Amino acid sequence: MSISVSSVRRKTYRLLFDPNTRSGRRFEGLCGLFALLSVLIIFVESGLGTQYHLTFDEWHLFVWLELFVTVVFTLEYFLRLFSWANPAKYVFSFWGLIDLATILPLYVMWLWPEISINYVFAWRAMRAIRVLRVLKLLRFMPSLRVFWKAIYSARHQLILFYSFIAIVMVVFGSLMYLIEGPTYGFTTLNASVYWAIVTVTTVGYGDITPHTPLGRIVASVLILIGYSVIAIPTGLITTHMSAAFQNRQQQRKCPSCQQASHEHSARFCNRCGSELPD
Q: In the prediction, which pLDDT does 171 show?
């Protein structure tokens, strides 16, 4: 009996990437372990402070480790392409772009080394891109979807809030540019707005500081505004996250007894013991 390609793709997806299966969870855990390993390699290599050249005549330990991790992630990438119902949708999705960005640098450097200024610069750039692999660990955080839904549902309020903050930054930066001027470090309007952003976030680097009495009054008002508005986006996201968690609990109904309001981590119904849907 012939087996269709679509059935093989479905079986591959269920075996390797379906979070509802034990094998899928184990495979995702293995990929997460390799993601941690790749990031650990970056930190160890950076701590040694040694430069390595990716040439075929000089193979170092970190080159072998990078090759091994890259091959693993390459196999994972092509397995996802093969098993995905819509491969093009995966390629241009957020996770697809992250997966592609973390495996391409090594192949690009070896196939077209002339496009790089030098191997040292290319190696540093590749190490920076490899850090993106830590984002793959976000796949193992189901609550992250609730957090993203909260941000998405509060997007209009957040856009309005940050637009208001941007206007305030421009206004206060212009005031300080007029009050202090180039004499005290406010050489351009861009530098003045930069100072306003640093001040309203209560960071205060101290590279640009007001010296006139009126300038210090404006700076004090801006600092008070910063303390007043710093909790607004946190409150918005917290409110929407609470609503998202409540909706998620209400939606998780037992298929047998229709009992609702189960805990997020619950796997079985607290009334009849039936398995709950994910």
A: 93
pTM over 0.70: no
What are the counts of helices (DSSP H) followed by strands (DSSP E) for the chain? Answer: 11, 0
Residues 6+ apart with CB under 8 A from 41: 62, 65, 66, 69
Query: How many domains, in total, are found in the chain?
Result: 2
| Whether the Cβ atoms of residue 98 and residue 13 lie closer than 8 Å to each other | no
Closest Cα partner for 175 from 130, 236, 225?
A: 225
Q: pLDDT of 32-89, one tens digit each? A: 788 888 878 777 776 765 554 444 444 567 777 778 888 888 898 898 888 887 888 8
Q: Alpha helix (H) ranges present in 17-154?
A: 22-48, 61-83, 87-91, 94-111, 119-130, 143-153
Query: Do 120 and 37 fall within a single domain?
Result: yes
Report pLDDT digits (tens) over 176-218: 999 998 888 898 999 999 999 999 888 878 888 899 999 999 9
When pLDDT is cut at 50, 70 and 90, the band that residue 253 belongs to is low
Q: Which residue type, as a one-letter code, is found at position 271?
A: R
Q: Is the Cβ–Cβ distance between 13 and 84 less than 8 Å?
A: yes
The CATH number linked to 203 is 1.10.287.70
Range of the domain at 170: 142-278
Helix, strand, coil abundance in the chain, percent, nearest 5 = 70, 0, 25
